[in-house]
Design goal:
This protein has 15 helices and seven strands. By secondary structure, the protein is α/β, with parallel strands linked by helices. It has two domains: 111 residues; 287 residues, no CATH class. A seven-stranded mixed β-sheet has the order 3-4-5-2-1-7-6. A hairpin with a 2-residue loop joins strand 6 and strand 7. Helix 2 packs antiparallel against helix 3 and helix 6 runs antiparallel to helix 7. The chain is elongated. Keywords: Membrane, Transmembrane, Transmembrane helix.
Amino acid sequence: MEEERIFLKKMYEKHKKESTKSKSLFFLYSMFLLLILTSFVLLIWYKKINFKILITIEVLIFIASFVLFWLLMRKLSLIRFVESYPKNEFLSHRFLNDFYILSFKRIPKELKSHNSIYKDNLKILQKMNLNAHDYVIQGSLALSINWKRFWRKTNDIDFITLKANPSELIKEKENFNLIFKDLAIEKYEYKETGQILDIAKNQVIPEDYIYSLKGYNIANIYWILVSKICELYRLAEQRVDVDKKIKNLFLDIAFIEANFVATLRKINKKKMINATKDYLISNMLLQYLREHNKFIKFNEKNLLFLTEWFERNFSELYTINAVISDVLNVLSFWILNDKSLITLNEICNEILEEKTHPNEIPVSKIISVKNEQIDKFIAIFRDTNKLKDKRLFALEELNKRFNQS
């Protein structure tokens, strides 16, 4: 990644000097394109020219318009690269990559890392030859697959199992070592690369957050974003040996934001809040069988810890500090000011603290938060007929497994 950052900085300094010229040319190309298109419309409207001549002119106008549009897009990608670099290196990476493509130039090796990391991750996943139909990939690998690019290699591959026996995920058991197992989670090491398969047995994910690609079930971008935010707050609560993980989470969030911007999308507040609520319930069900609870606590104290950590560690290191700070503050503002979400967060933590038997989980108390999405989520658990291909865990199925433990 360091080579890439040096290259981006070098290209930024080079093109920054030409920024005014690029903007002027962009404006000039826009005016020419507008003039040509206006002429084209007028020609069609009046039709006072010989038909053959009209066709010839129209073809020439089309070619000129195409060339001008190409020049516009090329200049726009360069302008966006220069303007985005001080805010988000990941975003500037995408725009510079677009500039090389539009210029019909070979993409420098320093810019190929994001695509090659995604391809490497996918190759390793395919090489593992997993029986992945009844599992959902979440975490950083899912993020990589969502955007078909990523900024770092993933050491862990996180799965949510949709079946009772997670060991069915692995076909060729001789290629894996079981390194950890409890009632909620199983961890395997892939011998060839040392990567860890982390299988959550009692976590659940609603079908709204799942899509299929290349034979795999993938968690969508909102589920992944929410998991990153929740993990930040969990680490803020833990506060021991958290620096490396927090750093990667901040960078992952900046990467997500960059791809939202590059694809002309915005993070939807309603989807974000609903996904957070669903993830909290999912995490509660996962943690219920764990020996040590990992609490997610949304409060001002943990936000202050994350903000101070960020200011200490990112102020001079990355040109993404502005965007991460904005995203953290905006998302935290949404979360901390949503009363129903905070209530649900407190309820989930109370259940974990009390370790209430699953048969006695106060579902009515959760529903009393009176959020339509939570009602729907609980209904999915309680009615197996509403499950996608009857693969997702229902609350009754979870209770049976809890009772057997």
